[in-house]
UniProtKB/TrEMBL annotation:
InterPro entries: CE4 (IPR052740), Glyco_hydro/deAcase_b/a-brl (IPR011330). It comes from the Eukaryota. This is NodB homology domain-containing protein. Residues 297-316 are annotated as: Disordered. GO terms for biological process: carbohydrate metabolic process. It comes from Haemaphysalis longicornis.
Length: 316
């Protein structure tokens, strides 16, 4: 079967990071070895500082647009205590804004990652079960050397230890969980895992250390059960030129392999629901447009008005 790698980015998309995304996704430089298709990433967007025209461009290239929240409130108790209706105002309304201002079909926006990796427990999961296809917030702890977790549905609830309170206690048939499999820093004695790839300490400071950090974690997946490998981070982590160089070197190293595919989170779940042999997967048609380094955002970037319309939630 293919070894999937998921490149995801949390936060706003705007002029401050589009140059990097264009470089990363440039199809003249980065294609899968067997299929010849370009790579794709998933963007868990928050509405604050979001450039909707940039979002439209990423989507047109074949990337996935997913959700975090409208407001970037840094008050953790707020996210831990709001009810289902309030979650809908934060998340479902953001999807309506993406449709209105980025021209991204609501049917294409099916995933969620909670602010501060907070799901809201059953209050948040009721919203997700009604409105979305998957959550990618729940942390799945494991010891170094233990096999990572595959995506699964919440038919029987969440059976792991709760790392970020509150966690869901109910069952939500058909709702997918894209687990946050923890990663481990390289060359440390404590083996303290991290949920997001940019949270492992100490952070690498050279291109070589960055490459080896990602490579060593990838090989734990690749040489065991081949669970989809998560590279979940914030683009700000790659502002450091050495880390950026190491990250891109890692991506290019992956693309030298015949059986590795860098795809969106939704594509991983599509495959999980309908698996196929590696030989058949390599023949799938490419999606999205070619991405070239010479492309630039056109002027007149559109931003949403400050007044938030509760369109989708009130319409159902």
């Amino acid at each position: 079967m293919p070894q999937f790698v998921m490149l995801t980015f949390d936060g706003a998309v705007n002029a401050g990071n589009m140059a990097f995304y264009r470089e990363l996704l440039d199809t003249s430089r980065r294609k899968h070895k067997q299929s010849g298709c370009g790579i794709a990433a998933t963007f868990f967007t928050s509405a604050e500082y979001l450039d909707y025209q940039a979002v439209n461009q990423l989507h047109s290239w074949g990337n996935e647009i997913a959700l975090k929240s409208i407001r970037a409130k840094r008050n953790r108790p707020y996210w831990q205590t709001i009810n289902t209706t309030e979650w809908e105002r934060e998340v479902v309304d953001q999807r309506a804004m993406l449709t209105a201002f980025a021209n991204v079909p609501g049917s294409d926006v099916t995933g969620f990652r909670g602010p501060f990796l907070i799901t809201g427990g059953d209050q948040g999961f009721r919203m997700l079960h009604r409105r979305f296809r998957y959550d990618s917030t729940l942390i799945h702890q494991r010891a170094r050397g233990e096999r990572p977790f595959y995506p699964y549905t919440m038919d029987f609830g969440f059976r792991r230890s709760c790392n970020v309170w509150p966690c869901p206690e109910g069952s939500y048939p058909g709702l997918w969980v894209l687990p946050i499999n923890v990663l481990f820093p390289k060359h440390t004695e404590g083996d303290l895992p991290c949920a997001m790839a940019d949270a492992c300490l100490p952070q690498p400071v050279t291109a070589e250390d960055t490459f080896e950090y990602f490579k060593s974690n990838f090989e734990e997946f690749y040489t065991t059960n081949r669970a989809p490998f998560p590279v979940f981070l914030h683009e700000a982590y790659l502002k450091h030129p050495e880390r950026k160089a190491g990250y891109l070197r890692f991506v290019d190293w992956l693309l030298q392999k015949d059986d590795v595919y860098l795809v969106t989170a939704s594509e991983v779940l599509r495959f999980m629901a309908n698996p196929e042999p590696l030989s058949a997967y390599a023949k799938r048609p490419c999606t999205g447009q070619n991405v070239r380094m010479t492309e630039h955002l056109s002027p007149g970037r559109r931003r949403a008005p400050t007044r938030i319309l509760h369109q989708e939630a009130s319409a159902t």
